[in-house]
Amino acid sequence: MAACAQLLLLWSLCLCSSGSVLGLKPAGGPAEPPNPPGLRAADPPGKDAPAAAAAAAGASQPRRATGWKLSEEEACREDLTRHCPKHTWTNNLALLECLQDRREEIEIAPDCNHLLWNYKLNLTTEPKFESVAAEVCKSTIAEIKECNEVERGRGYLVSCLVDHRGNISESQCNQYITKMTGIVFSDYRLICGFVDKCRDDINRLHCGSINVGHKDVHSQGEVIACLEKALVGEAEQQDHVRPIKQECQRAILRVAELSSDDFHLDRHLYFSCREDRERFCQNTQAGEGKVYKCLFNHKFEEAMSEKCRDALTTRQKLISQDYRVSYSLAKACKLDLRKQRCSLDTNLPRAREARLSYLLLCLESAVHRGRPVSNECQGEMLDYRRMLMEDFSLSPEIVLHCRTEIEAHCSGLHRKGRTLHCLMRIGRNERSTAIDSVCQSALQTLVQSADPGADYRIDRALNEACESVIQTACKHIRIGDPMILSCLMEHLYTEKMVEDCEHRLLELQYFISRDWKLDPLLYKKCQGDAARLCHTHGWNETSELMPPGAVFSCLYRHAYRTEEQGRRLSRDCKVEVQRILHQRALDVKLDPELQKRCMTDLGKWCSEKLEAGQELECLQDHLEDLVSACREVVGNLTELESEDIQIDALLMRACEPVTLAHCHDVVDNQIDTSDLMECLVQNKHQKEMNEKCAVGVTHFQLIQMKDFRFSYKFKMACKEDVLRLCPNIKKKVDVVICLSTTVRNDTLQEAKEQRVSLKCRKQLRVEELEMSEDIRLDPELYDPCKSDMSRLCPNVAFGNAQMIECLKEQKRRLSQRCHQRIFRLQEVEMSDPELDYQLMRVCKQMIKRFCTEADARYVLQCLKQNKNSELMDPKCKQMITKRQITQNTDYRLNPILRKSCRADIPKFCQPILNKASTDSELEGQVIACLKLKFSDQRLSPDCEDQIRVILQESALDYRLDPQLQIHCSEEISRFCAEEAAAQEQTGQVEECLKVNLLKIKQDSCKKDVLNMLKESKADIFVDPVLHTACALDLKHHCAAIPPGRGRQMSCLMEALQDKRVRLQPECKKRLQDRIDMWSYAAKVAPAEGFSDLAEQVMTSPSKNYILLMIALTVCVLFLVGLLCGRVTKRVTRELNRTSTSLKKKDCLLSPSFSPPLLPPPPLPDAWSVCNQRQHLLLLDLLCFIGCC
């Protein structure tokens, strides 16, 4: 070792942990110095202490050459006997230790003080003392090369041994060096060179006086304490002025380093904490820094004295500036620091390399990268990381940059890490008081240095707040495991979580989430992927081009890529990325990018959203209103949620019961997580579904409508179709309408090939079914009907299609726009019953029972056919009736009728169509028109079959005839109220109206009832009461007669007139009633045309008589016509002959005529010709009258 280094080590001090060396006598040398100091108190050491001591030593006369005893000196005899145990009187070193470790309230005589100081000074400067050390430590010196080569006789040997005392294995040598160092440490002036290096700083800082008279020499540890406080306070100054010189700083830190193994050597701390040591660390053996660590652990105990707490804080601050001030840390991590090359970074100044934060970052980086670091070193790192989190004042950057925030918001919270969590809370809450960016950066740096994500115990405030939660919810995880924090996050906002733990956890996670490296599990699994895909640096390195928050964004962008899209994350890394995304979904503040870009929008739109998860939902609800940067990040996050709904941890937690009950296959088989949301939507109204889950699922559905990309399965199935068929359309509802319209047009036009792909059509069906469940999922319907919903359906829930059903039932009272939309919706639902959510939900079991083989388009038709089955569910039957009523209001709502009667409707009902509106019902007018033509038997066979079905259905339930309801509402309430109130309609209302036909005053109602009678003549099935009464008679007497066109009714009428046939009494009575009704109808409503007349004749009871008379009349007219024809034929012939004669006569009278050779026959006169013509006209008149 060089000479300057030896001088530096000479003024350095060492710590002592063992007991006093009593009677130490190495071979060949005395145990005590041969020249004891004199007893002159009148000459205290002045400005030149060493010189004065030497003079004093030279002036004094030793009483004995050897064996000088301090207890025999008169100046100290009284103090020794009063304060020191008797067994120490024979050992000078034990007495010296006793007096210098006395309590503060105990004072000793000034002459004794001066004697002790001179004695200690002589010990350090006496060359023979070095020879004793050389003899006691002979083997140790030979082992330590540096100490073996030092110059002897100048005191350098002892300094070298002090510097290498950690390598001394000899117990006697170790005791000797430690004891002698402890003696001289009691006064800073005894430290060789210390006074010279720090004299100016001591005077400038008023840390004490170098003169003995100004201060008790045994309290001179306070001077070093004063310098230490000034040194640690230097880093906390805003102006960065360094009041302490560099050489004094190094001297102070070296003194602190050499006093690190035994707290006795830190005189200020020793005197400040003697009682606290007895109270908290009585059983802790001194040495190796154990007492320091024990006191550090009890620093914030209520019983700890403030004076001791301040001294400990100063000591900890020194450790923060130079880790070597901690004996245990420096010793445990010495080899690891060398192995991990933590002291060889040429880019950093030496002062920074010694900082505790740098050491921790370097070694933590090695641990996170999987490099070996000894358990002893990791244990020491854990203690000091906990120390940094526990006391903010140990981080000068926090004290410097966060002073304002601490004074304003965190005063009185100094203990147990509460100040740091207070600052973290302010950092999270950007609304009320924004934290300074420099302070925020200092907090982030501190969290990285302490790395509490690796072990929750580092954060004492979190540990104490969450202890109960960890013991209950996370007891299966090993204590100190990084998974504890993830476990706590999984139980956030659950019943097991306590409020204090929730706050502390979110405060810490806020900062951990801003640097992906602070999550040890994520870093361990993803460091390779991050370097490969995101070009990241080392654990303790940062880059302005790639800030820590951007790395995770890069990772999750690659996490959900398909193989076709390029490079993807490894499986383990993707799992960790998904875990972090799940955690971040719990609180918008845990997503740095989201919070940064959406800070303005959060304040503008979501200031009142205070519950968990509400802020993100609020941003999604206002997606169109957000600024572009915020809209982009919210859109990306929502798109990720659509692919992996488990990212929304709150929703998954709320939906756990329904997931276990109905979607466990999806979860257990690890099917695509987008299937899980589809399953939840399908089971949204199961009994296991709670309100929170239903609201969350509905919210997710509503958000999906804003952009088709938010529906992952739909996006993947239809992306190419959307780009090809619906370009520039972004909203999902518009995309669905565009694609479904394309599919419908291709189907109606019977195109050879569908333009929409098969996989897209399948997913399109899913989306259409989901939209039919909630009116809010269909903006085209929701927006026009908002006012109608609040006015007509104020207390009706949106889900389960209840609101849509309410609007259908209130259709007559809807506004025009809403009415048009509802009509269009019903038209689509009738064409495709699967889109009728209420029908499919209520009749789900009945469809399985009756219509399993039916085409989806004919499900309603199938249900109608089985409506009156004994196995039909009453609720389903009621729903079918509702749909029948709707269908009968307009033929366009009955696709089968519309198709069957496509030629008949324009042929017979064109005037009605001309008056019709496109989006409003015809109130059954077209169907009523077709019914009349059915009675006239003028419809096509297909149309006739459909009208017959409608007539049969409406004959059983008057509500299925909208025209009857409109025209006869008053009569029904007056005459048939009881029948109308019946739950089961069997045609009793129609029968009531027929019976009360004579009492009906309104012509329109009377006409409708007469039409019913007219229709019943055409088909007995249209008259359910009569058909029921005559069912047996039809079977016995008319089984061979085909139904329709009044054939079976005629059969019954003939049987009624045939006295040989005996009909059932009820049938006979009903038939007679119908005959009377028809007779009355004939009087009230005479035939309006030949067809009505023919119908009345054919349905009359005297049909045979009337037909016979008509036949006789025709025969008589035929005979009369034949007679008249023969007479008129003869007269006509004579008239023709006479006419010919007259023409000849005219010809003869002509001048150009040449007379014939023969004479003409005689001509009749004019009178006879006239009489013949009158006779002919008379005969024609008689024939005409006869024919008439």
TrEMBL record:
Cellular localization per UniProt: Golgi outpost; Membrane
Entry keywords, A to Z: Glycoprotein, Membrane, Receptor, Repeat, Sialic acid, Signal, Transmembrane, Transmembrane helix
Transmembrane residue ranges: 1105-1125
Tree of life domain: Eukaryota
GO cellular component: Golgi membrane
Stretches for region Disordered: 27-68
Segments of skewed composition (Low complexity): 41-59
Cys-rich GLG repeats: 243-303, 372-431, 496-563, 568-627, 688-747, 755-809, 813-871, 938-1001
GO molecular function list: fibroblast growth factor binding
Pfam families for this protein: Cys_rich_FGFR
Signal peptide start and end residues: 1-23
UniProt feature coiled coil, ranges: none
Membrane topology type: Single-pass type I membrane protein
Name of the featured protein: Golgi apparatus protein 1
